[in-house]
Amino acid sequence: MAKAEVSRPAGSRPARAPAAPRGLPELNRIIHERIRLGIVSALAADSPQTFSELKKLLETTDGNLSVHARKLEDAGYVSCTKSFKGRVPRTAYRLTAEGRRALEKYVNHLEALLRTTRRG
User: Fold this and answer.
1) pTM higher than 0.90
2) Measured distance CA(116)–CA(95) in Å, rounded
3) Domain count of the fold of the chain
4) Which CATH number does the domain housing residue 70 bear?
5) Minimal CB count within 10 Å: which of 97, 105, 110, 112?
6) What CA–CA distances, in Å, run from 87 to 83, 84, 90, 119?
7) Cβ neighbours, 10 Å, residue 12
């Protein structure tokens, strides 16, 4: 599928996300992406979950879920266990202690941003 091009006036730049207010660090880009945030949030609420459960919950494709789960696994935020139930392969994900700390830090950061915005 070809990527759609966005037309902009000559010389203009794409919109950039606003920088974090002074004193606040950047958001954790590993967790911040929608599917990855969904994965860690789902696992924080109910761990372990299978690939199929996460796919259904997040309403995403096999490929999309695989890529994002691998990114979280590479970061040490989730662990992946592969097994068989009868002859059917089963992949289960768990949130690691490091992943839980990263999610808590991310949520605390969002809360700080909201407090700063409300004071604004």
Assistant:
1) no
2) 30
3) 1
4) 1.10.10.10
5) 97
6) 10, 6, 9, 57
7) 8
